[in-house]
Amino acid sequence: MPEHPGTPLLEVEGLGIRFGGLHAVRDVTASLPPERITAIIGPNGAGKSTFFNLISGFYAPTSGRIRFQGEDITRLKTHQVVGRGIARTFQTTTIYKELSVLDNAMIGHRVRTRSGLWDALLRTGREQRDERESRDGAMRALERVGLAGQAGRPAGALTQEGQKRVGIAMALSSDPRLLLLDEPAAGMNPEETVNLMGLIRELVGGGLTVALVEHKMSLVMGLADEIVVLHHGQKIAQGTPGEVSRDPAVIEAYLGGHAHGGQMGQPGAAGSGASGTEEGAHA
């Protein structure tokens, strides 16, 4: 059922997690509008990937709530979150390079099937039905990312951009409403980055909601409808790219030892200060 205009698809309220004495994410309240692109940005160590890990069920928060389509999903396990309609990719392209493009995409769809080990061993009717559904779902995902014609190729034989698209297809195979992209443009050249931006726009135009963590500010400023800025695990701003780029707290966060001259979104500022490796698992 489509959301009422203005109703967030996902809401977090007072969200936080602590590792020992470290608050990796602290008291974050934010929302993601449906069928829009929201970028999560911030200097290294800001807590961006941890924020994604909380939303997707990889980490259990120590405080706060997460609501998706009006349902409280705060304590759900990862596979339950996927089943509700949230899928994600990771900083590194986690594909199986020796398998075919289609087989990779089918793995993503398997989270929605019900057959178990005995079904697979005995080739039960349920297993065969699930396999057909997985194949069909995987092909639909490959069509969405422009790889249907390369379904039979080994995934490792594709270009860097192609492998990124395989990773996105794996996530799309679970038929999500919300897609979380963790540094989707990492390792890609400018032309590949532009192509990826076009793909993301197409997916959102087709009804998907996208949230992404990204260091390439040219991509963020040219793609995002909304930006959430984290700093030291806390939200310091949320708004349009224009609003965020002029926010004094955001400028200070990037220029205060993380960048060298320029302004937010301009060469020499956020692009240089936040272009390094994303924070570790506890940031």
Explain what you see.
This protein is α/β, with parallel strands linked by helices and 283 residues long. The protein has 2 domains: 192 residues, Rossmann fold, CATH 3.40.50.300; 80 residues, no CATH class. Helix content is 36%, strand content 21%. The strands form 2 sheets. The chain has a 6-stranded mixed beta sheet with strand order 6-7-8-3-9-10, with helices on both faces. α7 links the parallel β7 and β8. The longest helix is centred in the middle third of the chain and has 20 residues. The radius of gyration is 19 Å and the shape is globular. The C terminus is likely disordered. One of its GO terms (molecular function) is ATP binding. It holds the Pfam family ABC_tran. This is ABC transporter ATP-binding protein. It comes from Deinococcus rhizophilus. Keywords: ATP-binding, Nucleotide-binding, Transport.
Structure summary:
The protein has helices at 48-55, 78-84, 101-109, 117-122, 125-144, 160-172, 190-205, 217-223, 241-245, 248-255, 270-273; strands at 10-19, 22-32, 37-41, 63-68, 71-72, 86-88, 178-182, 209-213, 226-231, 234-239.
